[in-house]
Write a structure and sequence with these properties.
Number of helices of chain A: 14
Shape of chain A: globular
Strand order of the largest sheet of chain A: 1-2
Largest interface: A-C, 45 and 44 residues
Number of strands of chain A: 2
Strand content of chain A: under 5%
Helix content of chain A: over 70%
Distance between the termini of chain C: 26 Å
Helix content of chain C: over 70%
Chains: A mainly alpha, B alpha/beta, C mainly alpha
Distance between the termini of chain A: 9 Å
Order of helices and strands of chain C: HHHHHHEEHHHHHHH
Order of helices and strands of chain A: HHHHHHHEEHHHHHHH
Structural class of chain C: mainly alpha
Oligomer: heterotrimer
Number of strands of chain C: 2
């Protein structure tokens, strides 16, 4: 009972209500435009496509809630896909070793972001902006400008295939299962001591530090998680969409938009990871809606821009109209 | 025919989201008067002051200044009408100079451009007027002590040509000697015909300074009386609606002073030197001294924030190298910090998240049993909140402080250092904390109590260690007088 | 400012001198001359575009805001200018006015969203940038408009080795320094960025100040757009793909302005712009792979900010009352 209440409070808090309502409205609009969307296969296709952004949003959430930014994830996704193509070069047998290498690379980039931000006291905006330039340049330097090589079939599996012949939905994509796994892991992490210390650090670093929190360590870990999420997203995107030099471009902004749309406040200390992932679903649903409304693809950014501003302005308006500290009289109920 | 009052607020109502905070409150201040506004936290003092300062708008009622009806929708309008407010949180910009801070928003101009020379001259004039001659107008505010920042704030109010200055807990952050300076400032302002609304919890100041007193309770005005016509006891009774028998609780039965739990020998760093300090189980040691004498620095050294670089520190007989808060916590030391909002609480998080923060952050003290006891600790402190899910930002100062204390008690420390634990909290919460401190001693903790309020050290401590300029100036037994403490604190020997 | 410590701006100009010297040595070792007329022209030409954007960016960053839309604004302004001028020298003034007006209005929109709707500036200006991007992508498939030869001079003319655009940039920078120091609105930007609540309680019109900073930032982007139009001879929507906004932010931060607002200034920004331009020229002369430039640039920005952070840390230290004893360690938790 108490646990249920806490869970529902956690869901309702931090703007989750708003983002869920927004998701419902967009789904309703999609259903209106194309009733077939909610039939199993097309819904599965939507979720397969949305999975990378949702996973990235979970990774970005850790960084944002601890009071930082990670602008390097787009470049990291791109780098991972290019690395995979060049190193695998069509050889099935190389798939696993290369995946391992990519994992190490993603974690290393996250670690570097974290250490530069925490140990060298560089604002994360600058750290990850610099990292974005470094990754962008280094990858092109390495490949001579255009990606080379190709992915193996096994590598493309997670992003492309799934469990086939499932009644009702047809195929359950691996990407969806990976997304659910990543989401569950993220929710679990935020309920551990790590998650609690992370959000407290984002809220008040000094208070957390004076409570004995290793603020630098948890913040660095958040960047490492973001690097991990970019690696997983890179594998899914590479498998789904293939290798181009544009992979990942601009994704850092899309994912930050998603997280903020979920009511997670830039600056840290507020918002839930569920809401952040819902924010990613909203963005993907929005893109789907644009498709169905046959909007010129070039206009998408405009609508996306309008919606993100409107959503955040709405949330900001709600926050400022919050109740002033009322003089509460009820006593604590020990739950 | 008498002059009209400087300020007449009548029938002020204010509610937030349907919860009435002020109900038909009247406040009348006569010219040249120092008027105290008192009441427990949550009585509505801050709200009334914010209405006067133009931060909030009243739902009903009238405000007259010098007989003219006014209504403020912005702080700026209040300032232009001659009402200046010195809020509890300091309102200076650290990167700007004293002169720039004083003139912010009203910079003197020549031909449309900021006239820096005039700004510096006016600042020097204002400060001289307040009897302050050793403050360079070009100093950046971040380089000033708390007391000096307050002087700058008052100078700022003066420069606005304020006819009424509201001071919200002006001595909350000051040591006793600095309070004297503030007294002189208030008297100078009164001599200049400036009326002052003085909001404070400290009865002594109210009786020292104020002509009349308005008492608020639960959003209503209880009474407005001349200070000469009421005793401190009656005033407290009027505020809390009940008579408080003794100000400080007696030690609990069964409290026994035992082994030495905290021992510092020859401790020193760049702020303090030659610190020899012992606190035993069941003992409350008071650390007294003027602002800047090294009280907080000793707390920070014991807790590892700015560790001792010389000497040794032992907990329960074992020598420890405390190089950071984590080491201190692992050694069983807790520090209730001076500034609960900046250093103690994650304001956007729930009561529960804050109360378990120390357990969550330190594997060495984390345990299921302790987590399970967090709720019990909170209720043992008589926390008033809507529930453990309520965000601490919405609690009153006293309840916020209880959450800070709870998060440390949850870790079951052996040594607890309390730095200004009662600053800016209401009488009821203060009393609860005094009782808590006594019960901690009874449970065998070693308590190191740092406070600017001499009466607290004298009323609670078993021994009083007095600091002066970073060193221990002397030690006094329980029952020492304020004069004895002050003598050591100011670098003399008690007669 | 204690006399023993260099203030931040002096430190940055010292860094600039260091970069110039090291760059000169590196180029000389490579058998070139960094200070040849051609290289100096190249270097200074690079300063003007980033310079315009960075000066405006300094104002918004001082207010603890940000403008991620300046690249898009500049691209749009170049189109507005080129189409309004339409190759007619008599319409130059019209084109300039139209570009600055549109850019100023975009700045006003940014400012209003940040100041009145309370939207985080990162999101607000990113959103406005996306809106403009969508418009540009939809309306302009290629270059549009013609810039008359007379106005193209703004892009190419130079006095000795100094391009006119650089002179204009430096003049505007001087105006910016003066504005921040001598006008109330400029001075208030430090207060708004330092602590907006304190500023408001002191009677500073915080929204007006924020709006002014954003409008000026937009107009500086408009000037950058005019320069783009003059250089290309036409309006170009493609310009936004160069991520000028990131260059501008890099220059501002390199110039010692705190990303969190309240401290810094245009003088430092100009040094930041110059450092980036010198590096670009050095890379260019030494024919370093353009992708390696990105890597180096990223690393340099991080390193520079790390160094500033370090110098500020030591500055914040308390005044010691007692000399440190033997084996004393720094007292950071």
């Amino acid at each position: 009972m108490g646990r249920m209440r806490t869970a529902s409070a956690a869901l309702a808090g931090g703007g989750t209500g708003t983002v869920v309502a927004l998701l419902a409205v967009i789904f309703a609009a999609i259903a209106f435009a194309n009733p077939a969307f909610f039939e199993g296969p097309s819904l599965m296709a939507f979720l397969k496509q949305a999975a990378p952004l949702v996973i990235l949003a979970a990774g970005q959430y850790f960084v944002i809630v601890s009071g930082n930014f990670d602008l390097s994830v787009g470049a990291l996704v791109g780098a991972q896909v290019v690395i995979a193509a060049r190193l695998i070069d069509g050889e099935e047998s190389r798939t696993l070793p290369v995946l391992g290498l990519m994992l190490l690379f993603g974690l290393a980039v996250g670690l570097a972001n974290g250490l530069i931000t925490t140990a060298l006291k560089v604002q994360s905006f600058i750290t990850t902006l610099g990292m974005m330039l470094v990754l962008y340049g280094a990858i092109r330097l390495w490949t001579g400008g255009a990606p080379t090589g190709s992915l193996s079939e096994a590598f493309r599996g997670p992003g492309r295939r799934g469990i086939d012949d499932v009644p009702l939905v047809g195929q359950i994509p691996w990407a969806l299962l990976i997304m659910i796994g990543a989401g569950a892991a993220a929710i679990w992490l935020m309920r551990t001591r790590f998650g609690r210390v992370l959000i407290a650090t984002g809220d008040n670093e000094l208070a957390a530090e004076l409570s004995g929190a290793r603020t630098d360590t948890v913040r660095t870990a958040a960047f490492v998680l973001s690097g991990l999420s970019a690696t997983v997203a890179g594998v899914l995107i590479g498998g789904y969409a293939g290798v181009t030099s544009q992979v990942g471009e601009g994704m850092e902004f899309t994912v930050i938009t998603a997280v903020v749309l979920g009511g997670v406040v830039l600056g840290g200390g507020r918002g839930s990871v569920v809401a952040a992932m819902c924010g990613a679903l909203v963005i993907e649903a929005l893109f789907t809606l644009f498709n169905q409304m046959a909007l010129p693809a070039t206009l998408r950014p405009s609508v996306q821009g309008l919606i993100i501003i409107a959503a955040v302005a709405y949330a900001a308006g709600r926050r400022t109209r919050r109740p002033a500290p009322a003089t509460a009289t009820a006593s604590t109920d020990p739950s | 025919m008498s002059r009209s009052p400087v300020l007449a607020m009548r029938g002020i109502d204010k509610s937030f989201l349907g919860v009435p905070v002020l109900r038909s409150v009247d406040l009348v201040i006569e010219p040249g008067e120092v008027h105290a506004l008192v009441g427990e936290n949550g009585a509505g003092k801050s709200t009334l002051m914010k209405i006067l300062a133009g931060v909030h708008a009243a739902d009903a009622g009238t405000i007259e200044l010098d007989g003219r009806a006014v209504s403020f929708t912005h702080p700026l309008q209040a300032q232009q009408a001659g009402v200046a407010t010195v809020f509890q949180e300091f309102n200076l910009l650290p990167e700007l100079s004293v002169a720039e801070n004083i003139h912010l928003g009203r910079e003197p101009r020549r031909r449309g451009l900021i006239d820096r020379r005039a700004m510096a001259e006016r600042t020097a004039g204002l400060l001289a007027d307040l009897g302050v001659t050793d403050l360079d107008p070009r100093t950046k505010a971040k380089a000033l002590s708390v007391a000096r920042r307050q002087i700058v704030e008052i100078a700022k109010a003066m420069s606005q040509g304020a006819g009424l200055i509201c001071m919200d807990e002006p001595t909350a952050a000051l040591a006793d000697a600095e309070v004297e300076l503030l007294y002189r400032l208030v008297e100078r302002l009164r001599d200049k015909g400036v009326a002052i609304l003085y909001v404070s919890h400290r009865l002594r100041e109210i009786f020292d300074l104020c002509d009349r007193i308005t008492v608020l309770k639960d959003g209503e005005r209880v009474d407005t009386v001349a200070a000469a016509d009421i005793t401190p006891d009656d005033l407290v009774t009027a505020m809390v609606g009940r008579r408080i028998e003794a100000v400080f609780p007696e030690p609990l039965p069964g409290t026994a002073v035992g082994e030495v739990r905290l021992a510092v020998t020859g401790g020193g760093n760049d702020q303090v030197d030659g610190i020899d300090l012992e606190v035993r189980a069941g003992e409350i040691v008071g650390l007294a001294g003027l602002q800047g004498s090294g009280r907080t620095e000793i707390a920070e050294a014991v807790f590892g924030v700015a560790p001792f670089t010389r000497g040794t520190l032992a907990v329960d007989g074992q020598t420890k190298r405390i190089t950071g808060p984590r080491k201190a916590i692992a050694a069983g030391i807790a520090l209730v910090t001076e500034d609960r909002k900046a250093q103690g609480l994650a304001l956007n998080q729930s009561v529960r998240a804050n109360a378990r923060m120390v357990l969550d952050a330190n594997a060495r003290v984390h345990s299921r049993e302790r987590l399970a006891r967090v709720s019990g600790v909170l209720s043992s402190l008589d926390l008033v909140a809507r529930g453990e899910d309520q965000e601490v930002q919405y609690l009153s100062g006293g309840n916020q402080q209880k959450v800070v204390v709870a998060k440390w008690l949850a870790a079951e420390p052996g040594v607890i250092v309390l730095d200004e634990p009662t600053r800016g909290i209401d009488v009821g919460a203060k009393h609860k904390l005094y009782a808590v401190i006594r019960s901690l001693a009874a449970e065998g903790l070693a308590v190191l109590l740092i406070t600017s309020e001499l009466i607290e050290v004298i009323g609670l401590a078993d021994r009083i260690v007095v600091l002066h300029d970073g060193r221990i100036a002397g030690e006094l037994p329980a029952g020492a007088t304020e004069q004895q403490v002050m003598a050591y604190a100011t670098g003399r020997s008690p007669a | 400012m204690s006399p023993r410590r260099l203030d931040t701006t002096a430190l940055i100009y010292l860094a600039l001198a260091g970069v110039v010297v090291l760059g000169g040595i590196a180029v000389a070792a490579d058998g070139g001359n960094l200070f040849s007329t051609a290289n100096l022209v190249d270097m200074l030409t690079r300063t003007s575009l980033t310079g315009f954007l960075a000066i405006g960016m300094t104002l918004v960053i001082l207010c603890r805001s940000l403008d991620l839309s300046v690249g898009y604004t500049a691209a749009l302004a170049s189109l507005v200018a080129a189409t309004a001028m339409d190759g007619d020298p008599n319409r130059i003034a019209l084109g300039v006015a139209a570009a600055l007006l549109v850019a100023g209005l975009i700045g006003a929109a940014n400012g209003a969203i940040v100041a009145f709707l309370g939207v985080n500036p990162f999101i607000a200006t990113l959103g406005v940038g996306l809106i403009i991007k969508g418009y540009l992508d939809t309306e302009y498939k290629g270059p549009a408009g013609v810039v008359p030869a007379a106005f193209q001079q703004f892009g190419y003319t130079r006095i000795a080795f100094v391009p006119v655009s650089t002179i204009v940039m430096l003049a505007l920078a001087a105006a910016g320094i003066w504005f921040l120091r001598s006008t109330r609105t400029g001075h208030h930007m430090y207060a708004v960025g330092g602590d907006i609540d304190v500023a408001r309680m002191s009677g500073v019109r915080t929204r007006t100040t924020m709006m002014t900073a954003h409008v000026l930032c937009g107009m500086f982007a408009g000037v950058a757009g005019l320069l783009l139009a003059a250089r290309f001879g036409t309006g170009s929507a493609e310009a936004y793909t160069n991520l000028y906004e990131l260059d501008a932010i890099a220059a501002v931060v390199l110039g010692g302005t705190l990303l969190l607002g309240g401290r810094g200034g245009v003088a430092g920004t100009v040094a930041g712009v110059l450092i980036l331009a010198v590096l670009d020229t050095v890379f260019n002369v030494m024919q370093i792979n353009p992708f390696a430039k990105d890597v180096l640039r990223g690393a340099i920005i991080i390193a520079a900010v790390a160094i500033y952070a370090r110098s500020q840390l030591s500055r914040a230290d308390r005044r010691p009352r007692f000399a440190a004893g033997a084996g004393a360690t720094a007292g950071r938790p």
